Amino acid sequence: MIRLHIFPATLKGTPNPSPFCVKLETALRLAGVPHRVWYETNPANAPKGKLPFIEIEGERIGDSALILRHLNDKLGVDLDRDLNDLEKAQSHMLQQMVDERLYWVLVHSRWIDDGNWPVVKRVFFGGLPFPLSRIVPRMARKQTRAALRTQGTGRHTSDEIYALGARDLAALSAFLGDKPFFFGDKPTLTDATVFGTVVNIIGPDLPSPLKDAALAHKNLVRHTERMGELYAAKRQRQPIMLTMAA
Fold first, then answer.
1. What is the pLDDT of residues 178-187, one digit of tens each?
2. Which parts of 32-157 fold into alpha helices (H)?
3. Judging by DSSP bridges, how do beta strands 2-6 and 53-56 pair with one another?
4. What domains does the chain contain, in order, with CATH numbers?
């Protein structure tokens, strides 16, 4: 049995506050892979210091992309198996755009945008006792700001960052068109990837130009709703375990 370690579902409006946790759990559900969910509150417990990660056959594997590659190699889990070579290349590029740029715009909207930071601080750190409730959020925001700058997105103005995100969303909308899923009538890994990020943009009550841009694309909204229905329909009736911070 695979143990899937993800963040607790602490942010209303999304299955999980992490797009990567949503992506991986959605992929496992769509592929029908038996798994047990363990809620982690400390990413430092993960093999790569971030969530999600899985435990399978005594091995701990981190990073959603590497996890899916491992499951493909070991179990034949491949949501893109019916795509041709060109479509697989397109799927890869779409996933990279979402994971490597649109994701960072989402991070900016939550952690750096002063309008949303108080909500994010309360959701993620509200349960900490004083003085940790003052110290930890400040440190986490500082680290996130530094990560954004190192990655590159944080070197731009807020208007420029949101404009980049709007262009990514417009590209996704154009590619999706009037299809139910990105490559036709059947969801692929691209659908799971886009769902993980877009549901985190439009689902929570965190207003931003990024959310406005996403809501303007009605086909992306419908896609998110459609994937949410599939996600719920594929829910496994298995115990959910909680792992407290070490």
1. 999 999 999 9
2. 64-75, 85-97, 103-107, 117-125, 132-151
3. antiparallel
4. 2-243 (1.20.1050.130)
